[in-house]
Write a structure and sequence with these properties.
By secondary structure, the protein is α+β, with helices and mostly antiparallel strands. It has helices at about 1-10, 25-35, 60-65, and strands at about 15-20, 40-45, 50-55, 75-80. The protein has one domain (about 1-80). The chain is about 30% helix and about 25% strand. A 4-stranded mixed beta sheet has the order 1-4-2-3, with helices on one face.
């Protein structure tokens, strides 16, 4: 899934910031994001509110379907991958 996210980060670099969170290094953040399964993708807005999530392995089309309604024409959103 890392290569999918790297591709997506390049493709949508003006509208999306992708970050990886290591669950063992940031348990408080993982808990705050409600991550219960690894891997997980959590889409956050600029105010760090959760907009959407995917848990478990996901294909590129599934990730893009999750993101499509949330990607703005202007400012970026963030995807945290755990």
């Amino acid at each position: 899934m890392e290569s999918l996210l790297a591709h997506l980060a390049r493709k949508e670099r003006t509208r999306l910031r992708v970050s990886r969170v290591y669950v063992e290094h940031a348990p408080d953040l993982v808990n705050r994001l409600g991550v219960t399964e690894v891997p997980s993708l959590v889409l956050l807005d600029a105010g760090r509110r959760i907009l959407a999530r995917l848990e478990g392995r996901a294909s590129a089309p599934r990730i893009e379907r999750m993101l499509a309604p949330h990607l703005p024409d202007g400012g970026p959103v963030s995807v945290e991958a755990a």
